[in-house]
Amino acid sequence: MPPETPGDDIPVARRVQYCGRCGAILLEGSGDCAACAQRTARQSANRTYSAEWSDIKSAMMLYFSLLAVSVVTIIVLLSSKGEMGVTGEIVASSAMSLIVLVWSIARHDRVRRLLFSRSRIRWYFLALGCPIATFLLAALCIQLLVRLFQVEPIAYLAPYQREGWSFVWPVLLICVQPAVFEELAFRGVIQGSIEAVVGPWQGVLVSAAMFAIIHLSIPSLPHLLTLGIVLGWLRMGSGSIYPGMIVHFLHNLLVLLDERSGGFLKW
Amino acid sequence: MALPRGSSGPRVITGDAVPQSAIGQSLVSEDLTKQMKKVFYTLLAVGLIQMTCGAILLVALKNNPAMTLNLPILLLAQFGVAGVFIVLSIWSRKAPLPAAIVGLVIYATLVILNVVNAISNMSAGGPKTGIGGLGIGWLDIVIMAVLVQGIQAGIKYRKLQEASAR
After folding, report:
1. In this structure, what is the dihedral angle of CA atoms A156, A162, A163, A167, given to the nearest 10 degrees?
2. Using CA atoms, how far apart are residues A232 and A248, in angstroms rounded to an integer?
């Protein structure tokens, strides 16, 4: 009897193909079967879960390592009745810088792109203007605390002046060191790790919150959080860490100059 | 003739494995959602406890002349922390994962500072607080464990959603 439709004489086994992995029937011309493609996606999701959990743990461990240095500093301050001296500050700053350096090398995948990327010039112009706004906000918050709660503002330059250190040293320890190493830590490693898990804007908020908390000063939380959000936004928008470093340096420098001059703003 | 392979034999599945059937995904998704909701209740509970402690502090120290100078700062710190946790609990309704991360960081920081304070008090001959005089209690450990579970659940939930969307 002649075949009714073309192809009817071809044996079934030659027309139907089977997936090499699971044996499910494949449609002609397709690669993996749907089940294997889904299984591959789920396996990829499993690997990514471990990597994401590792990212969050890494960010938190860096934060708690820096917190440990702060806690040891507080213990030394308490045991020396509030007089740690500039040498103690140099030791604490060096320890923090070393921790951040080691972590940045270990997580160079998060930091390398930020260090070597070129961002548009407008981000640098923005970086020059932002510190004025952040400094004004910080000064306003501190004035409110002084007037409402009779809080004594922190005198950053007092230990340096008391021990006869030149102005270069507080600029190095209070402006340059935080601008470089705190930015590497919070906007480099921590924001990079967290945003890979939760997304860019939530990464900015989480890293800004951690930046504010590490300073261990609840009254300073509002302006530190705002500064952290501004720095995180600059890093997210520019794709580089340098605009944030500029803002951080200039903000801290304005605070020091304000203290040195006896106050720019007459409240 | 090559015979199609049937389904494989028993497989060892780790705790991180994503379920492969729609029913399995739905069950795991429900479980993960419950763990993430615990983050909201935990953060809210911490905020309310801090607020209650602040109110007790206000009542107890208001009439103490020795504490008049420090009272505003203490209250600012206490109610400030309470406010932060309540804001985090509201945020966790929309985004439980970042809220849990920030909540864990803040709470662990407070616990560490409390431990340091307790140890320095104990070395100065003061009273012992917490487990072994370290200033950390069982409730602290439970709260931190719930927040860690919430973070893990948040990551797994995102991965499950990504896998089922493919």
Report:
1. 50
2. 11
- B72 or B17, which is more confident: B72
Reduced 3-state DSSP string for A163-230: CCCCCHHHHHHHHHHHHHHHHHHHHHHHHHHHHHHHCHHHHHHHHHHHHHHHCCCCCCHHHHHHHHHH
Residue A169, CA distances (Å) to A104, A156, A165, A172, A173 in order: 25, 11, 7, 5, 6
ipTM of the complex: 0.80
The C-alpha atoms of residue B69 and residue B57 are separated, in whole angstroms, by 14
CA pair distance A186, A179, nearest whole angstrom: 11
**Backbone φ, ψ for residue B57 (5° rounding):** -60, -45
Which pTM does this prediction carry? 0.81
Cβ of B2 within 8 Å of Cβ of A18? The answer is yes
Q: What is the token pair recorded at A73?
A: 């500093």
Nearest-CB residue to A205 (from B98, B105, B155): B98
Only one residue has tokens 């493919």, namely B166
pLDDT band of residue B12 (cuts 50, 70, 90) is very low
Taking the Cβ of residue A146 and every Cβ of chain B, the question of whether any pair is shorter than 8 Å is answered with no
Cβ–Cβ below 8 Å for A209 and B95: no
Contact indicator for B152, B20 with CB cutoff of 8 Å: no
B99 shares contact with chain A (CB less than 8 Å): no
- Of the two residues A39 and A127, the one the predictor is more confident about is A127
For A27-83, the DSSP string reads PTT--S-HHHHHHHHHHHHHHHHHHHHHHHHHHHHHHHHHHHHHHHHHHHHHHTTT-
Tell which residue, A224, A228, A100, A106, has the closest CA to residue A92: A100
